[in-house]
Structure formats: structure tokens, C-alpha cells
Amino acid sequence: MTRPLKAFIFDLDGVITDTAEYHFLAWKALAEDLGITFTREDNEELKGVSRMDSLEKILALGGRTGDFTAEEKEALAEKKNEHYLTLIQNITPADLLPAIKELIMDIKAKGLKLGLASASKNAFTVMESLGMKSEFDIIVDAKSVVNGKPHPEVFLRAAEMLGVEPEACIGVEDAAAGVQAIKAAGMFAVAVGPKASFENADIVYASTAELSLEKIVVVYNA
């Protein structure tokens, strides 16, 4: 039996705001510096994946996996992050995805806890720019965990920080790796995106505009 619902834990990129375009442009700039062709299709493989794992995928694309030391790879990842930080300076509350602010306010009105579990190392900066940082009880970012998604660590850490059991949490994600992480953590999974991409999710919505606390809770309690 499902425990009484106590918390929602959100992914950031693609759920609360769409920084995917900024990540793509930053990775593309780095790839071009390295003489590697990097397309939007290639970028799909990086959704929900950590920065260092994303770099490894890009180096593999260009056949350059063995060309850099661990220290040089760290420097490359940092260079990508500098590109990204420049690009996201213009984010404002207007960049919240459709219906997300309403959903968050509905969750808070019900007295449920709110957590963020993001693969981004810039989650605090982005949430501040969106005007949403103060609405969340806790934020867990890539700096806080050892294992990236699809490992459940980031969601388990969020539940621990919120003081709730994983089974009493609903996770919201837009990446297959993220949904895997939610399910591995023992949580109820809400996915945003094409239904065919999320066989393991408990509910799938085509876009954030369709998200509804009432509908999610009905399925959770079923």
C-alpha cells in the first residue's frame, strides 16, 4: 500500500524551466573547439546525464576518448560550464514552463513538502533567477551527490533532507534516466514527454501544461 503523500521532488531542466537549449549551445561550442561535430540529435543522449558523463559521450563521438587526462577533462567540463553560465544570465521568472508555478503553489497549499533533485551544478543559480528558490524546502544538485542519474542517490538524498520516506514522495522528470532514478528510489514517477519514452513511469504528460495535482494524486492513491 502506498504511504500517505508527503512530498514532491522535481527535476529542474525540462520540468521547471527549459535550459536544454543553453546546455546544447554550450556543449556545441566546446565540441567545435575540439573539432567534434555535435548535433541536436546527439544532444538528446545527454538529457539527465551528469556533466562529466556528457563530456565522455561527446569525446566518444569524435573518437577522442583517450586524448585527455582526467585533469584536462575536468578543465574541458569547466569550460563548458563557463559557456553555460554566460548563456543563462538572462533567465527570468518568465522562463518557467507552462503550468509549473500553478502546480508548485497547489502543492504548497496542500501542505506538502517540495524538493529539487537536479543533475545540474547550477541549480541554485537557476532557481534564484526563476524566483523559485524560496518556494522549495530543499535543493539537491550534482555537487551534493556522488552518483548521477539513473542512480537513485539524488532522489534518496532529497527525501532524506525533507525528512520523508521515499515511498511517500512523487518525483517529476522529463528524462528516461531521471524516471529510472525515481523508480529505483522507490518513488511514484511522473514523466513529462513522449509516452513511448517512459515505460516505467506511473503517469506520463505530453507537456508541463497538462500537469495537474488533482489528477496526479488520484492515480497515486489508486
TrEMBL record:
It is found in: Cytoplasm. The record marks 118, 149 as: Important for catalytic activity and assists the phosphoryl transfer reaction to Asp8 by balancing charge and orienting the reacting groups. Substrate binds at residues 11-13, 27, 46-51, 54, 80, 118-122, 149. It holds the Pfam family Hydrolase. It catalyses: beta-D-glucose 1-phosphate = beta-D-glucose 6-phosphate. Binds 2 magnesium ions per subunit. One of its GO terms (biological process) is carbohydrate metabolic process. InterPro entries: B-phosphoglucomutase_hydrolase, Beta-PGM, Beta-PGM-like, HAD-like_sf, HAD-SF_hydro_IA, HAD_sf, PGP-like_dom2. Its cofactor is Mg(2+). Keywords: Carbohydrate metabolism, Cytoplasm, Isomerase, Magnesium, Metal-binding, Phosphoprotein. The active site is at 11 (nucleophile), 13 (proton donor/acceptor). One of its GO terms (cellular component) is cytoplasm. This is Beta-phosphoglucomutase. The gene is pgmB.
